[in-house]
Queue: 2 jobs
Job 1
Amino acid sequence: MDAIDILVNEHRHIERVMDLLGWAVEHGRGGGEVSPVLFERAAHFLLTFVDGSHDAKEGEVFQAITARGVPLGEGVVAALSAQHEVGREIAGELREVARAVMRGEKEPEEQYALAERYVRLHRGHTESEESRFFPMVRRLLPVDAMERVRAKFARIEAAHGSLGEAADALELAFPVPATAVRRPGNVRAQPWIGR
Ligand SMILES: [Fe+2]
Ligand SMILES: [Fe+2]
């Protein structure tokens, strides 16, 4: 497994949290009860594990690419970095708004709108990375450079813990009916009542 495989694997874990958020938004807007705790905990995941760990790892890839002085790489890196920044801002706002909803100071719709914006941004961003950026990294970075990047990933991982396990913990805390992700319109249960 090289550095890019690790990032792609993390995308799959992050997508589970995107699915959870997408379902929570749809369920809440459809009149179901969704605890703001779900959004607060999801925002914590986005800040700690997506921004703090996954995006930080990609930052190491950006540096490695930029160091090779490829102009095309720099343009792509700037665009992706800017999206990381926007994602961090939305996640921070989502955490604040979810806390305000808990205190009864804001309407749930505000957290739904932020969560929806984040999910949309993240899906497009991931698609760009996997279809364009990662193949370019594999072409441009020789094996030894890729190995050095991977060694830096290990340090980031040690500081933050496992992203996959954090996604597992969120799914366990807020279980979504198995049919819901495949068919979001099929609302049968309200698993978050009383949380
Ligand atoms: Fe990224
Ligand atoms: Fe990514």
Job 2
Amino acid sequence: MFNIFKKKSNVDAKLFYHTDVHSHILPGVDHGSQDVAESLEMLRAELDMGITHVMCTSHVTAETFENTPETLTAAYNLLKKAVAEEGLPVEIYASAEYRIDEYWTSQYEAGNLLPMPGKHILLENSFAQELIGIDNMMFELQVKGYRPILAHPERYRYYYGRKERYKALHSASVKFQVNILSLAGYFGNSARETAIWLIQNNLCDMLGSDMHNMDHAHIIKDYIGSREWSKLCDKYDLRHRIINDREFEL
Ligand SMILES: [Fe+2]
């Protein structure tokens, strides 16, 4: 319904960082972008928000999206060619969001991974329960030179009553990436409140769009034009604390 009281957001709003570390923009490999035209539209939306470097972190999950470095690179090459043809001033990088499941284990053991620059690797917990042995796995990954980033920790409900697990993982050098969509309330109040709690407790290292489609892009654009977002940035000095750009040295 049309709401005459809805506050207008700032249509020129830009993010203060230029690297999106989490997106589903590669065409046709998961339930994000379905084709090159949609990917280009999403990249234009990223540019409109001030993002110039995009980590394309498509899902890699058992049974649903059993992607490999080959399937992801093929989609990346298609998109890279289209980006050049369109002359878009954006750099894209092929990588993945690895769900920690049996398919991950098989790919990891086979050395069949596609990390981001600097061997950063975006990992998604199961939404049902915490994996037994996750601490050892995160440790072993780092011994092998990978730098694990936990995707959207605010979305795992089993941590809400066990916040000490956040602190344990984070102090074991696992970086945390919070979704802007969570801050905007897209995943509900609990995820939003937990995202803010992570920021308040210095447990949010990176922000990501986790953009799957243009609806997500519009929600993020509206949110970063809101007073709520600018107050959050100021109150917690996010411009200095968020390491999206520093971490990749692109
Ligand atoms: Fe994602």
